[in-house]
Design a protein that fits this description.
heterodimer, A: 428 residues, 6-stranded mixed beta sheet, 8 helices, 25 strands, B: alpha/beta, 19% strand
């Protein structure tokens, strides 16, 4: 399966009469966006605001971040099974509005939504301080259940990302990247001397605000399976979670999975990248045991010599991570795990809730408990009301002057476990 | 800025009092430098001076830690130092323990920077490295020539409040404190690089060495449940409505103790969860799902258990550090024992 990814560099975003891309500038029609969002009868109102890198702006509480993309050719459409009909995506041509993100925010569903600062010290911790963000501040009707509200907000983000993405359909991209994964036997025959490497992609699936969807399927209801890596680039996996925003994969993270990208970089040179095994992180022990067993089985069945395992979340999923690692290593397949840490605000505590000596190769996204002081901002997109309550905040986090003292856990994507960032933690 | 004021701690041997036979020597303070203080002084140059030296026998200190510290701390306080230095202790175990304990106490009570130095296998390293900086030295006093200047330089660095670098750069035993840093490559590239090294059998450095977990052996079963007083403790965040203690939704910095007198059922009017790590809808509808008060009241009525303890304890397990959890558990367990509780049902989420 071969996918061409055409990246259109977007330098800025502004409001205007027509939604279009011209010479690297994205113009969006506010009314069109509002009308599309309000087609969902569960949403009472929506505000459209733009945040640009360097702005003295804080966006919170953030639910999801999505990159606008469009299928130019090849089967299927963006977000198959959710926004478009089920079809196998991951081949042909997809255009990307690079440098733009749709951000859904507004009143909290749970305690888990995050913060994006567009400038200041907090901006260093989130990749979304570097994108031009089209923010949808959503207000649900009173009495809506948290499940309905979460779904409405999730769909609104995808709907608008699709709408904006469509503007890139006929634009000549600035960069063209080509990714290809062949059927298994051909792939192995092509580089018979290179080590066969897979990617075990763990998806958060613990319930409300902790869910992930694959071709529209709630991933806690699936058993581990295999994807072509390019399917992920076409929105096969979408995020329904922002629990402790620091280490949850937004849809944008999935679309731009850096482990997939960096394995492709070495494909045919140092390794033979055969494919992606997706698995879940459920709350029942039997499910954990079944999923980790099947994941290890699929690694062996593919004939892998080695695999990278990425986690999503922390605490309870640490057990899924360690089960996967132990069972895969026990089959003689070498692993590197990608995780993050909860070592306490002083950094002195044990970082993971589960551990095993098989996990001897670890990459960390950093200690999520580290405390940061985020200075006041001129503009707030969303609301500050929930700052003390969100995961990583504490009583008094929000100070009278509008500054926030909280753990970096509150920052969307700060300790991402797909290795999206340059942060790590060291022993001092 | 004038010279930094340093107070130095050494044992009876380096203080010139005597060897093992004088190890019960009680604490004494002298003006200026003594013994190895000379080597520190040479390195200090104009930057610092040793205003006083405390000398104490190793046996005396280790057998009378509390009393020794009660005498030693005021001795140090009187000289108003900017930095406190102890040792180097090399591989002398009791000397190392004393250096570590005095440094830790000075840091806590006087809130000034402290440093000591010893060999990797000195028991003082493992006992105190989390609390204080301990520089690496050779195993014997033969290393004094090399380690004393390092100790002096580090003391000056602390005194000038300069940033301390990585263990391998600044020569201290890794303290096991995790600190976030930004590096050149993103995590995914680091993972791929590490995997290729691992496949090739080349050496690689894990970014997080796996911790060793302490496992708790379960107690034997309760023999007579019908006589037992049972308590409920949860990390599932069940709190009285509106979370009176404001327990955090993640990284809880506290736990709560709540009265169950006259409570037979946890209703959505009275109770909720403060936990941010799981779907709270079902717990908020009926908190008994996480903290089974209703069922225990039934069992109490039916005579299956002796009684339900009057208080329950709750915190939020979500992202709460193991060290904090351990500390809460120690306090909760003590209270439960004092209250005559026979068994505890721990519910997590």
């Amino acid at each position: 399966m071969k996918l061409e990814l055409g990246k259109i560099n977007i330098k800025s975003v502004r409001l205007g009469n027509k939604t279009e891309v011209k010479e690297g500038i994205l113009t969006i029609n506010e009314d069109c966006i509002k009308n599309l969002v309000l087609e969902d009868e569960r949403i009472k109102s929506v505000k459209v605001e733009i945040a640009t890198p360097g702005d003295k702006t804080r966006i919170t509480p953030v639910k999801d971040v999505i990159e606008p993309r469009v299928k130019v050719s090849g089967a299927g459409g963006m977000f198959p099974g959710v926004r478009t009909k089920i079809d196998l995506v991951g081949s042909g041509r997809t255009n990307v509005l690079s440098g733009v993100a749709v951000v859904t925010c507004g009143k909290i569903v749970g305690f888990q939504e995050g913060i994006i600062d567009m400038s200041g010290p907090g901006a260093d911790f989130t990749p979304f301080s570097q994108t031009c963000n089209v923010c949808l501040v959503i207000e649900p009707f009173d009495g809506l259940t948290p499940y309905d509200y979460e779904e409405a907000a999730r769909n609104a983000g995808l709907r608008i990302a699709e709408y904006i993405g469509d503007t890139g359909k006929d634009i000549e991209p600035d960069i063209l990247e080509v990714y290809e994964t062949k059927p298994l036997l051909e792939a192995i025959a092509e580089y018979p001397d290179l080590p066969k490497v897979g990617y075990v992609y763990m998806l958060q699936t613990q319930g409300l605000l902790h869910d992930t969807y694959v071709y529209g399927v709630d991933a806690k209801k699936m058993v581990p399976t295999i994807l072509y890596p390019t399917e992920v680039m076409d929105g096969a996996i979408i995020s329904g979670n922002c629990v402790s925003a620091c280490d949850k994969n937004t849809t944008y993270h999935h679309q731009n999975n850096p482990i997939i990208h960096d394995l492709y970089e070495r494909h045919g040179k140092d390794l033979n990248f055969l494919g992606v095994i997706i698995t879940n992180e459920t709350v029942y022990l039997a499910d954990k045991e079944r999923s980790s067993m099947w994941t290890a089985k699929l690694c062996k069945y593919l004939g892998l010599d080695a695999a990278i395992i990425s986690q999503e979340g922390f605490g309870n999923p640490d057990t899924d991570l360690i089960m996967n690692c132990k069972k895969i290593e026990a089959l003689g397949i070498k692993t590197v795990i990608v995780t993050d840490e909860y070592a306490g605000r002083d950094g002195k505590s044990q970082s993971l809730a589960d551990a095993d000596k098989a996990a001897d190769a670890v990459v960390t996204g950093g200690n999520a408990n580290e405390v940061i002081l985020l200075p006041p901002m001129d503009k707030i997109i969303g609301i500050l009301k929930y700052t003390d309550k969100i995961a990583g905040g504490f009583d008094g986090s929000l100070r009278p002057d509008g500054s926030i003292e909280a753990e970096i856990q509150v920052i969307t994507g700060s300790t991402n476990e797909l290795g999206f960032n340059k942060m790590t933690a060291v022993g001092m | 800025m004038g010279k930094l004021r340093i107070v130095h701690y050494i044992n009876q041997f380096y203080g010139g009092i005597g060897g093992e036979d004088k190890a019960d020597y009680q604490p004494e303070v002298r003006e200026g430098h003594v013994g190895p203080g000379m080597a520190l002084l040479q390195q200090f140059g104009e930057a610092a001076e040793i205003v006083a030296t405390v000398i104490c026998g190793d046996t005396y200190f280790n057998e009378n830690v509390e009393q020794a510290l009660e005498v030693i701390i005021p001795m140090i306080e009187k000289h108003n130092p900017d930095v406190f230095v102890a040792g180097p202790a090399f591989n002398a175990g009791r000397y190392g323990m004393a250096c570590g304990a005095v440094c830790k106490a000075v840091q806590e009570k006087m809130n000034i920077p402290v440093v000591t130095a010893m060999y990797a296998e000195n028991p003082g390293v493992d006992s105190f490295k989390k609390d204080i900086y301990i520089l690496q030295t050779g195993s014997s006093a033969a290393d004094m020539k090399k380690s004393a200047p390092k100790l002096a330089d580090f003391a000056i660095k602390l005194g000038k409040k300069e940033e301390i670098g990585l263990p391998e750069v600044d020569g201290y035993h890794e303290r096991g404190i995790r600190k976030n840093v930004f590096v050149k490559e993103r995590g995914s590239k680091r993972a791929v690089d590490m995997l290729i090294k691992k496949i090739k059998g080349e050496s690689f450095k894990t970014e997080y060495p796996m911790p060793v977990f302490d496992t708790v052996e379960p107690n034997p079963p309760v023999k007579y449940m019908w006589k037992a007083k049972i308590a409920l403790v949860t990390s599932g965040g069940i709190v009285p409505k509106n979370n009176p203690d404001k327990i955090e939704s993640s990284s809880a910095s506290k736990y709560g103790k709540y009265d169950l007198e006259g409570v037979f059922d946890l209703t959505d009017e009275g109770y909720e969860t403060a936990h941010g790590g799981y779907d709270p809808v079902y717990a908020n509808q009926d908190a008994d799902r996480v903290l089974p008060v209703d069922v225990l009241r039934d069992l109490e009525k039916e005579g299956h258990i002796g009684s339900l303890h009057r208080y329950y304890y709750a915190t939020v397990g979500n992202g709460t550090s193991v060290a904090n959890a351990k500390a809460y558990a120690a306090r909760i367990a003590t209270e439960l024992k004092n209250d005559g509780v026979h068994a505890v049902i721990l519910t997590s989420t």
